[in-house]
Specification:
The complex is a heterodimer of chains A (244) and B (208). Chain A has nine helices and two strands; from the N terminus they run H-H-H-H-E-E-H-H-H-H-H. Chain A is mainly α. The chains are: A mainly alpha (244), B mainly alpha (208). At the A-B interface, helix 1, helix 3, helix 5, helix 7 and helix 8 of A face helix 1, helix 2, strand 1, helix 4 and helix 7 of B.
């Protein structure tokens, strides 16, 4: 788990988290196209600035927009309004198309900014920022523990699936496949719970008292505050465009 | 089963975030140094399971198994789902920060109710119970938690705008085959757990 996946390491993790949250809350309330397009553009620029690898960006965007398409596909046809196109029982309305586009732009802008500011952060700095922002301790510990063991459990899952394949299991759409997956999942859970007993014992042996050590976040520097001020100006511009 | 940013109306967002906060707070109260590792590893396990692709006709789908989560985690299912969604936002950059509360509530509330009910029934089940009783309990847990979540998602959408209701109804119908998958897989997984480690399922949920 690297500390800083993106090329750009500043601004500070707390600033990144606060900026992302503020941006998201503001953007989901925007209803004017000018403001939405500026939000989308600034999301794109932030991603470019953060140096997210192009292939990774494309893969994530493709997945994200695919998911978006699935959730929003029906919306242009179900919102009442001025009819743009009609074919049989299906009508495409202007309001529906506009609303769908608006939601897609909002969601994409928020995803881009969180990709730019959060995904390069790494779990430990993210958790340190959460702790600094007074998120309940137990929740931060849960983030750390589950992020740390995600990889371990995924490897365990892969081993179990290789074992299934070695016994000539081929996934199909049938009852046998489903019950086999059910047994696989049950086995993953049994192993996770057994591992949890060992992990818990080891943690307590080493004097765990509800707090895992985390990297110390450096005090805020002028450059961090500069970023925060710049970001606040962007948000201010969005507010003016959205409501002015 | 995952609402994106920018869909829900502000009152729905705030209301569900408030309820989710209460649930997460209550769930965190039951956690201490001895139970946190178990909760963390189960969260990771369910997260990795949700990435598993299950073939469904020409496409594939992925499972949520929130009913089983509720059964194993009790009240801790609220923080577990919240953390899983946070990790999803962090690792995949999917956003979803403003709908974190709504998504947590929609998934965790049915999971909690079904899980607590399922626990109560399991505690009454004799150790040598017929596998049919166990399998039908598992299927009910899997299907009810999933359908509950689908209904909550549809309700949140319907409360956000009239245009969403028709879309939400169609989405509900499209989810039905997945509910069947959830039911079958949950039943099989529960049967394995009951056979291999029954003590995990009959201990009081408060000890979780």
């Amino acid at each position: 788990m690297n500390d800083c996946g993106a090329v750009v390491c500043w601004p500070d993790a707390r600033i990144r988290l606060c900026c992302t949250l503020a941006f998201a809350v503001l953007v989901v309330g925007l209803e004017r196209w000018s403001a939405l397009l500026v939000a989308l553009l600034s999301g794109g620029l932030l991603v470019a600035w953060a140096g997210v690898a192009v292939r990774r960006l494309l893969r994530l965007l493709l997945l994200f927009e695919g998911g978006l398409l699935l959730t929003l596909a029906l919306l242009p046809f179900t919102v009442p309004g001025k009819v743009l196109w009609q074919g049989g029982a299906i009508t495409l309305t202007e309001q529906g198309a506009l609303l769908t586009g608006m939601i897609a732009v909002r969601a994409t802008a928020v995803a881009l900014v969180s990709l730019a500011l959060l995904s390069g952060l790494g779990v430990s700095r993210f958790a340190a920022a959460l702790r600094a922002l007074r998120v309940p301790l137990a929740l931060v510990e849960l983030v750390l523990l589950s992020a740390r063991y995600l990889d371990v459990l995924e490897r365990e899952q892969r081993r179990l699936r290789v074992a299934m394949r070695a016994r000539a299991f081929r996934p199909r759409t049938d009852f046998h496949t489903l019950s086999s997956y059910g047994f696989l999942i049950g086995m993953i859970l049994v192993r996770a719970l057994e591992r949890a007993e060992r992990v818990s014992a080891a943690m307590r042996c080493r004097g765990y008292a509800g707090r895992m050590p985390l990297p110390e976040l450096a005090p805020l520097r002028a450059a961090d505050l500069g970023f925060a001020i710049g970001f606040a100006l962007l948000l201010g511009a969005l507010v003016v465009l959205g409501h002015g | 089963m995952h609402i994106v940013d920018g869909v829900l109306a502000m009152p729905v967002l705030l209301g569900s975030a408030g309820l989710a906060l209460v649930g997460v707070g209550l769930g965190l109260r039951g956690l201490d140094e001895t139970t946190i590792a178990r909760t963390g590893l189960l969260t990771a396990a369910f997260f990795s399971i949700s990435l598993l692709h299950i073939p469904l006709g020409p496409t594939s789908t992925h499972l949520l198994l929130t009913g089983l989560m509720g059964l194993l985690l009790g009240w801790a299912v609220f923080p577990a789902i919240c953390v899983a969604l946070l990790l999803q936002a962090l690792l995949f950059g999917y956003g979803g920060l403003t709908v974190l509360g709504a998504n947590t509530l929609n998934l965790a509330l049915p999971a909690l109710l079904v899980g607590l009910g399922g626990r109560a029934l399991l505690a009454r089940l004799p150790r040598a119970a017929s596998s049919w009783a166990l399998l039908s309990l598992g299927a009910a847990v899997g299907a009810l938690a999933f359908i509950g979540s689908a209904l909550l998602v549809a309700g949140a959408l319907a409360a956000s705008g009239e245009g969403f209701w028709a879309a939400a109804r169609l989405a509900l119908l499209a989810q039905l085959p997945v509910a069947v998958l959830e039911a079958v897989v949950t039943a099989a997984a529960l049967r394995l757990l009951w056979t291999v480690r029954p003590e995990l399922l009959v201990a009081p949920a408060s000890a979780v």
